[in-house]
């Protein structure tokens, strides 16, 4: 029998194991349901039950590209708060008791932005590194910036604001209070990819077409820090600077130390090459080290870096 519509199962994740560990596995399913195009689940999410179970979670898989909304009264139409889902991909989202799931088949044109929370603490302080219910969503059909901005939760432990981005075509994306995806620091977001960027209160998202380029795009950023609520935010923070190298060479800019390393994490070069080549972190502490790593075209790479480091690239 072939899959059809949206298959949903409700359970738990992030609870404490028998010896105090925090296994981030889906467990204790309570119900399952198939939601058809334009429909809403008849069941609603269970409430928290016991520390070993963790947070209530819905897991879902769609047979076609489409849109999913999660709320007590969810709306998967363009007017609702929704996220884009790939056919055949599996998604886990932390929910609240009483939430239902709505589904609408359909495609995406432009850049879809969802602001959610991630990296929060679950029951009894366990870390739950999963998406929490989207706070708002917006689709940019042409180059520009979102009208909405990132919001922190007023409740302790729900995590940090994170943008989930999905573009129908390759895009340059900037994040900040006044983002500029043309001249400002930006990331290269490949089409058809779920792309996560950690944000601050008040940040917006801007995007534009990157046009055609041959070489490598480098964005300097931070990643892996502790959020204000104490949870681990396992995605990159907004770009500090970015450069595109169209021929062999080294970035003009170097990495700056994070103002608070515990909150922002370690320095990272995020690298996207359009052709095969080699990259080298030109270390400020050891500039004679020429060790290099191969990078494949059209793949995204994250490389740790320290204060003062720059990045060099050589086509294969």
Protein described:
Helix content is 1%, strand content 46%. With 316 residues, it is an all-beta fold. The strands form 6 sheets. Strands 2-1-3-6-11-8-13-16-19 form a 9-stranded mixed β-sheet, with no helix packed on it. A 4-stranded antiparallel β-sheet has the order 12-17-14-15, with no helix packed on it. A 4-stranded antiparallel β-sheet has the order 20-18-22-25. The protein has 1 helix and 26 strands. The longest helix is centred in the C-terminal third of the chain and has 4 residues, at 261-264.
* Alpha-beta classification: mainly beta
Cα-atom radius of gyration? 20 Å
**3D shape:** elongated
Order of helices and strands: EEEEEEEEEEEEEEEEEEEEEHEEEEE
- Biggest β-sheet description: 9 strands, mixed
Helix content: under 10%
* Low-confidence regions: 18-23, 122-128, 227-233
- How many helical elements? 1
Q: What is the assembly state of the chains in this entry?
A: single chain
- Distance from first to last alpha carbon: 47 Å
Spatial order of strands in the largest sheet = 2-1-3-6-11-8-13-16-19
Percentage beta strand: over 45%
How would you state the average pLDDT, rounded? Answer: 85
Count of DSSP E strands?
26
Write the layout of secondary structure elements.
Blueprint: E1 6-14, E2 27-35, E3 54-62, E4 66-71, E5 83-85, E6 90-94, E7 100-105, E8 111-118, E9 120-121, E10 127-128, E11 131-140, E12 144-145, E13 160-167, E14 171-176, E15 187-189, E16 195-198, E17 204-208, E18 216-224, E19 236-237, E20 241-245, E21 249-250, H1 261-264, E22 265-273, E23 277-282, E24 293-295, E25 301-305, E26 310-315
Parallel strand pairs: 6-11, 16-19
Antiparallel strand pairs: 1-2, 1-3, 3-6, 4-5, 4-7, 8-11, 8-13, 9-10, 12-17, 13-16, 14-15, 14-17, 18-20, 18-22, 21-26, 22-25, 23-24, 23-26
